[in-house]
Amino acid sequence: MNMTPAGNGRLVVSLTVFAVVAVLVWRTMEPGRFQQLAWLLIGFFAFRTVLTWLRSR
């Protein structure tokens, strides 16, 4: 796995962490505004991670 900034390794690890956090939010939080805010933040950081990876290529 290539762990350089432009490599796929970091992207895979970070998106896997975001997925695990998303599953934890889904399983532990009650549906409502706080859960929606958590989903929005996770999505924002995942999108930002992908944009940073694309920019470094």
Task: Walk me through what this model shows.
Helices cover 79% and strands 0% of the residues. It contains two helices and no strands. The protein has a domain of 28 residues. The protein is elongated. The protein is mainly alpha-helical.
Layout of secondary structure:
Blueprint: H1 8-28, H2 33-56
Helix pairs in contact: 1-2
Average pLDDT, all residues? 92
Sheet having the most strands: none
Number of helices: 2
Show unreliable segments: none
Percent of residues in β-strands: under 5%
Number of strands: 0
Category from helices, strands and their pairing: mainly alpha
What helical percentage do the residues reach? over 70%
Silhouette: elongated
Amino-to-carboxy terminus distance: 16 Å
Radius of gyration based on Cα positions: 13 Å
List the secondary-structure elements in sequence, H or E. Answer: HH
Characteristic key phrases:
single chain, 57 residues, 79% helix, 0% strand
Could you write a compact summary of the structure shown?
The chain is 79% helix and 0% strand. The chain has helices at residues 8-28, 33-56.
